[in-house]
Specification:
The structure holds three protein chains of three kinds.
Chain A (H helix, E strand, L loop, with lengths): L2 H7 E12 L2 E12 L3 E5 L6 H9 L6 E6 L2 E5 L4 E2 L7 E4 L11 H11 L4 H14 L15 H13 L5 E5 L7 H18 L3 E5 L2 H7 L2 E6 L2 E6 L1 H6 L4 H6 L3 E9 L2 E4 L5 E4 L7 E7 L3 E4 L6 E11 L2 E8 L2 E10 L8 E6 L5 E2 L9
Parallel strand pairs in A: 3-9, 3-10, 7-8, 8-9
Antiparallel strand pairs in A: 1-2, 1-4, 4-5, 5-6, 10-11, 12-13, 12-15, 13-14, 15-21, 16-20, 17-18, 17-20, 18-19
Helix pairs in contact in A: 3-4, 3-5, 4-5
Chain B lengths: L9 H27 L13 H8 L1 H34 L5 H13 L2 H12 L4 H6 L4 H4 L2 H37 L4 H30 L2 H7 L7 H10 L5 H28 L21 H28 L15 H7 L5 H32 L5 H9 L6 H12 L12 H25 L3 H9 L4 H28 L4 H6 L7 H10 L3 H28 L6
Helix pairs in contact in B: 1-12, 1-15, 1-16, 1-17, 1-18, 2-12, 3-8, 3-9, 4-8, 4-13, 5-10, 5-13, 8-9, 8-10, 9-12, 11-12, 12-17, 13-23, 14-23, 15-16, 15-18, 15-20, 15-22, 17-18, 18-20, 19-20, 20-23, 22-23
Chain C lengths: L1 H19 L5 E5 L3 H15 L3 E5 L2 H10 L8 E3 L3 H10 L22 E14 L22 E3 L6 H14 L2 H8 L3 E2 L3 H10 L4 E6 H9 L4 E4 L7 E8 L6 H11 L2 H9 L3 E2 L21 H6 L1 H12 L3
Parallel strand pairs in C: 1-2, 1-3, 5-6, 5-7
Antiparallel strand pairs in C: 3-9, 4-7, 4-8, 4-9, 4-10
The chains are: A alpha+beta, B mainly alpha, C alpha/beta.
């Protein structure tokens, strides 16, 4: 692949992007690129800078340093002072609070982007109805947004975002205000919509399952930086840091110390396994849920106490603490319901353990 | 570097800054300069600060400042005593005819304070209407601090009444019921939940009353002088109207008054910003309210009495005076006629010209303050650009500038000999004065309206292809329009009756409603003045109501 | 929508502007009655084609305006309600010397090189005929028990003629009359009209030192009020008209003074129940020759203005 063809395929990119509010840095240097027709999820806890990054792409904020390009065009560059306002960027966007204009009808909301692009009235009506049909709300065109339920309002917001077939659609935690069942349905619908329309999209969320379901690329963000940028499969298989693993809820994180010839849980006296020479004396590991099989307490198993347990679709996911190293919390999937306070024996498949590169206290 | 937000607010900000500089900063700076440089009027900067010493050493000044504060506190207290119980009952109980009482209690806003005062004098003085009807008078009460307090409180208490009934209504419905679920009796829920939550709103409205009371001229001038009670505003007026004139002294006393008002205003803002529970959508329906039960008749009686005293007495007294052939003829049937009203319509003493002038100025003021208010509020609330703090401070100043100070400042500023063109001695100077005095109204209403609009509504418009100006016009302006429209109607009503500044700076040969009335009083034609007052009150009350009804029907303004 | 807003604003403002500033040739500030100056400028414009711009207010407000405008004055002709203004402005060198040919019949004490009276008012007792009190005939009558709490006094601080009356009477008996009045419940009640209004309704029986023409005009309208000129004498207030030296229209201003003193102009003055300045113009009211005047030294009285007002304030309390 040549540089040129790579460039023409890039729908949106950011280089060295920083944003400061006064002395406070919100983004500390973001480099990311997204190909045409792909979906990028920005995943992270609140305050990590993911919404700020989205607003920089949208043109609702201007960067303090670095640049943003959309479809090969530089739309914002702090060095040269280039700044294209949002209306010049040919975007669609779905807001967390929907941001439907209360003084316009549903149809008026959806046709607004077409109106701004100077499209004729007849054409506007046709395309508005088409977009509303796609989200199943064609009967509501003349209603006010306030007459609609939360889920319906969300669909109107989506119809408004796709109606003008923009080159890039931005989603700002679009489902966080919906209840769980609705949210799960909408994730499926959105995935279908994005695939069938071949949309290029950036999707901000704090929900890892939404991100892993919808995105081709996931950027896990933390403290104004991208911690890891990878496909969903890579992310699950090889989280780059304990924090990524923890945020994706891949399993329990534990710190090990080499003592004699064994790896012992730090701060306790429980040995996990025999140590090999290849690794440093202090290591941090991820024990994935799938690596642990629960059973009765037996000598060859680790003894643990159940702290809490929650039903998931495929069983009861319990959080347990090891007896003798009770600061270590692991996640266990059990077919039977486990009650807080129960004892449980854990057998661990050592091959599935993921060893992180850096020792603990790794992150500043 | 501070984070930039999106561009596109620049036009709004520039418009707001230019308007505020012209309307607010210029006259204010002139007053400050005059205070510092006593010979500024002669174009000289000699002897700076010399008049501070003489003015501040005047022993009467402390008395006047004390009287000003005393009067303000009394009016606040009286307003609270009248308004709080009524507001609470209106908010929590089903008061029969509540909508009608809301209208009746709104009318005092429309009666110019100096007219209301004269109405009270005509009613309560010896051989006044009260004595003619019932055989006794309350002159000794009227011409005292208590009388002044009563007249001014009846003029300003609606501010408190409406603030209390709105907040208590919203708070009561939302939180007090939660308290009851957790075991509080209605009374305990009121004392422990509703009242503390409503307190900031109540305090803010009381401070508004205080600010209005210390700026009021007509009532202390008409009632206070006889009680030997001088306040700062009448003191300033005296320095301006007593030969030899002391403009530097008046400027310094103005600055003292400005300081007092500013403190009040900052206090109000502090209370509101610290803990404001003003709920946005709390609009409970009548069915949420409790029936009054045995309290029905006493409460109803209280509403009727207050409405009658606040609205009925001044209006009836104005009407009676306007219809009297001669004042000495009293309330006799053969003394009643429409002669004075006819005189107004026959354009006697330029009455129709005065009406036309005032209404044109009112419309102009409403439009300009609307434009500046909405752009300034937008810049302050919705943008993060750098000049916005300056804009915010500039919009605070007029809250603290009494009409007479604005007038003095405008004369000083616009009558410099080196100016190539000046609005002085043209109607524009009145327009400038009214805009400065009334700007806080549109500013306050639009700020509140903008604060209720989610930031993303504008962002969404921008993302979907609207330029900054288009987004403002298509999205924000329609959303704040209901609030803006009511503020502009209020501005229209207040501008068309403004007295103090008008008397001092009206261009030669031009009369407004207020100067016409004042002049008739000064020349002994009380009846003609009152007829004009009655017509003006009628128009300024009915016209906005009509407009609102029209807007509502056309769907432009929501209920 | 913004466009239409702006055009409405400009339209409304323009309408007012056109109404207010019909381009005028001379500007007159007057402390006299509005209807008098309206009629007089109308007649003047009809005769000469020169338009007149008028600012009418109390003497104090007129003075405030002139002082505020000191650096850029616009007034051509000033008609004050107090001769003291003319003396003061003459001393400051602000006046233009002018003797109108029509002033020949104006008595000498009503004109100087720089100013000439438009008309004269006198002070008297304004008495409500239906007040149930006996008709007073002299100032001292108002200290009698019949008038207990029934007397208003115009504020001498706010009116030049009231001050002259106060000073003249106080000079005769060292404020005894005023102390007696105060003991009898008389109060100081604002400027002239403010003091008169309660008398019309009957709240008070009499004004001590009312400006006569306002009261006479009220009586003419049918109010039950009468002016009594006290036997022991009173003061008159000639209303000086003067041309300011910064005027750029001095010739037109002189024509205005001429018109003011013409037959037509003086008849208008008489119609307002003021005494005409010219002794040969008739009026339907008592004239100077019918009045007994108090004697006092103008310069001395004004020299002690502050002290006199201070004493009055002390007697009547307050402020």
């Amino acid at each position: 692949m040549t540089i040129d063809s790579l460039k023409s395929n890039v729908a949106v990119s950011a280089a060295g992007l920083e944003l400061h509010y006064g002395a406070t840095p919100v983004l500390k240097g973001i480099d990311v690129a997204l190909g045409q027709g792909k979906t990028l999820a920005l995943l992270g806890p609140s305050g990590c800078g993911k919404t700020t990054l989205l607003r920089l792409v949208a043109g609702l904020l201007a960067p303090s340093k670095g640049s943003v390009s959309i479809a090969g065009q530089v739309v914002a560059d702090a060095a040269s002072g280039t700044f294209a306002p949002p209306e010049k960027r040919n975007l669609g966007m779905v807001f967390q609070d929907y941001a439907l204009w209360p003084h316009m009808t549903v149809g008026g909301n959806v046709s607004f982007p077409l109106e701004m692009r100077g499209i004729s009235r007849a054409e506007r009506e046709k395309r508005t109805m088409h977009a509303l049909e796609r989200v199943g709300l064609s009967a509501y065109a003349s209603r006010r947004p306030s007459d609609l339920s939360g889920g319906q309002q969300q669909r109107v917001a989506i119809a408004r975002a796709i109606v003008a077939e923009p080159q890039l659609i931005l989603f700002d935690e679009p489902l966080s205000n919906l209840d769980r069942e609705l949210r799960e349905n909408m994730v499926g619908e959105l995935a279908e919509l994005i695939a069938s329309l071949g949309l290029t999209a950036i999707y901000v969320t704090h929900d890892h399952s939404e991100a892993l379901t919808l995105a081709d690329q996931v950027a896990v963000m933390r403290g104004g930086l991208i911690e890891q940028l990878a496909t969903p499969d890579e992310l699950v298989a090889q989280p780059s840091t304990p924090e990524v693993a923890d945020f994706l809820r891949l399993g329990g994180i534990a710190d090990l110390e080499r003592r004699d010839a064994c790896w012992v849980f730090r701060g306790g006296d429980v040995a996990l396994m025999r140590a090999d020479e290849a690794r440093a004396d202090n290591s941090r590991i991820l024990i994935p849920v799938a690596a642990i099989t629960p059973g009765d307490i037996q000598p060859d198993r680790l003894a643990a106490t159940v702290l809490r347990s929650q039903f998931r679709g495929d069983g009861h996911l319990a959080t347990v603490s090891l007896i003798g190293a009770d600061q270590v919390e692991l996640q266990v999937l059990s077919r039977h319901k486990l009650k807080p306070g129960d004892g449980v024996g854990l057998s661990i498949d050592f091959d599935q353990i993921r060893w992180f590169e850096k020792p603990f206290h790794s992150h500043p | 570097m501070a984070a930039k937000s999106v561009g596109g607010q620049a036009p709004a900000a520039w418009l707001a800054i230019a308007g505020l500089l012209l309307v607010v900063a210029v006259p204010f700076a002139a007053v400050v300069m005059q205070g510092i440089f006593p010979e500024l009027g002669q174009g000289s900067f000699a002897n700076p600060f010399s008049s501070f010493v003489t003015t501040l050493n005047d022993g009467a000044l402390i008395g006047m400042a004390g009287n000003t504060i005393l009067l303000g506190c009394c009016v606040v207290l009286a307003s609270a005593v009248v308004a709080v119980p009524l507001g609470v009952f209106r908010a929590l109980y089903r008061v029969p005819g509540a909508a009608l009482f809301d209208v009746l209690l709104l009318v005092p806003f429309m009666i110019p304070p100096y007219i209301a005062t004269l109405g009270w004098i005509m009613t309560l003085q010896p051989r006044g209407y009260l004595q003619q009807l019932l055989g006794f008078n309350l002159a000794s009460f009227l011409f005292s601090l208590a009388g002044m307090t009563m007249v001014m409180a009846f003029n300003t208490f609606p501010v408190v009444y409406f603030a209390v009934s709105r907040t208590v209504e919203a708070v009561g419905a939302r939180y007090a019921d939660v308290g009851r679920v957790f075991g509080a009796t209605p009374a305990r829920a009121f004392w422990r939940i509703t009242l503390p939550l409503s307190a900031p709103g109540l305090a803010a409205s009381l401070m508004l009353v205080f600010a209005a009371a210390i700026e009021e001229y007509g009532t202390p001038a008409a009632l206070g002088r006889r009680a030997g009670f001088q306040v700062l505003v009448t003191g300033i007026d005296l320095r301006i109207s007593d030969w030899p004139i002391d403009l530097p002294g008046a400027s310094i006393m103005s600055l003292l008054l400005v300081g007092l008002s500013l403190l009040t205003f900052l206090g109000q803002r502090w209370i509101l910003s610290r803990r404001s529970y003003q709920t946005v959508n709390g609009k409970p329906t009548a069915k949420d309210k409790r029936p009054l039960g045995v309290m029905k008749w006493p409460v109803l009686a209280a509403f009727i009495i207050v409405s009658f005293l606040a609205t009925g007495v001044p209006l009836l007294s104005i009407l009676a005076t306007a219809m009297s052939r001669t004042i000495s003829g009293g309330l006799a049937l053969d003394n009643m006629s429409f002669d004075n009203f006819l005189s107004v319509f026959q354009n006697s003493a330029g009455a129709l010209g005065a009406l036309a002038n005032s209404f044109s100025l009112g419309i102009g003021t409403a439009l300009i303050t609307g434009l500046i208010g909405v752009t300034a509020a937008y810049t302050v609330v919705k943008t993060k650009i750098r000049g916005r703090l300056a804009i915010d401070s500039l919009t605070i100043i007029p809250n603290a500038l009494p009409g007479i100070v604005v007038a003095v400042g405008l004369i000083l500023a616009w009558n410099m000999p080196w100016l190539p063109a000046t609005p002085y001695n043209t109607p524009f100077i009145l327009l400038l004065a009214y805009c400065c005095i009334l700007l806080p109204q549109t500013m306050r209403y639009s700020t509140a309206a903008f604060q209720q609009i989610g930031d993303n509504l504008e962002a969404a418009a921008r993302v979907f292809g609207a330029s900054g100006i288009t987004a403002f016009r298509r999205i924000l302006l329609p959303l704040v329009f209901p609030s803006l429209a009511s503020a502009m109607l209020l501005v229209f009503a207040l501008a068309s009756r403004e007295l103090v500044a008008s008397v001092v700076i009206a261009p030669v040969g031009m009369q407004t409603i207020a100067t016409f009335i004042w002049r008739q009083f000064e020349q002994g034609s009380i009846g003609l003045g009152m007829a004009m007052a009655f017509i003006a009150i009628l128009i300024t009350t009915l016209l906005p109501l009509l407009l609102l009804a029209l807007l509502r029907r056309s769907g432009l303004v929501a209920e | 929508m913004f466009k239409s807003l702006k055009s409405i604003t400009l339209g409304a403002v323009a309408a007012v502007l056109m109404a207010g500033v019909a381009h005028a040739d001379i500007t007159v500030y007057t402390a006299g009655p509005q209807s008098l100056i309206d009629k007089m400028s109308e007649g003047f414009t009809k005769e000469t084609g020169i338009k007149v711009n008028v600012f009418q207010a109390t003497t104090g407000k007129v003075m405030a305006r002139i002082e505020a405008e000191a650096s850029n004055p616009v007034v051509d002709v000033l008609i004050s309600a107090s001769w003291d203004t003319a003396s003061d402005f003459e001393k400051r060198g602000w006046l233009v010397k002018y003797s109108s040919p029509n002033a020949a019949k104006v008595p000498d004490f009503l004109k100087s090189d720089y100013a000439v009276a438009q008309g004269i008012s006198a002070l008297g007792i304004a008495w409500n005929t239906k007040s149930g009190t006996p008709k007073p005939s002299d100032w001292a009558d108002l200290t009698k028990p019949e008038y207990k709490d029934m007397v208003n006094i115009p504020d001498p601080a706010q009116s030049g003629s009231s001050f002259e009356l106060t000073a003249a009477l106080a000079g005769q008996d060292d404020f005894k009359l005023f102390k007696d009045l105060q003991a009898n419940g008389a109060i100081i009640a604002g400027a002239n009209a403010e003091a008169l209004n309660p008398v019309l309704q009957g709240a008070k029986a009499a004004v001590f030192g009312a400006v006569d023409y306002i009261t006479l005009a009220a009586a003419k309208k049918g109010e039950s009020v009468e002016v009594v000129f006290p036997a022991s004498g009173t003061v008159i207030a000639p209303r000086p008209a003067m041309i300011l030296n910064w005027s750029k229209n001095q010739d037109e201003a002189k024509k205005f003074i001429d018109y003011m003193l013409s037959d037509a102009g003086q008849k208008m003055v008489a119609a307002q129940m003021l005494m005409p300045a010219r002794s040969d113009v008739a009026a339907d009211r008592p004239l100077i020759s019918d009045l007994k005047l108090l004697k006092f030294d103008n310069a001395a009285v004004y020299g002690k203005r502050k002290e006199t007002l201070g004493e009055i304030t002390k007697i009547f309390g307050g402020k």
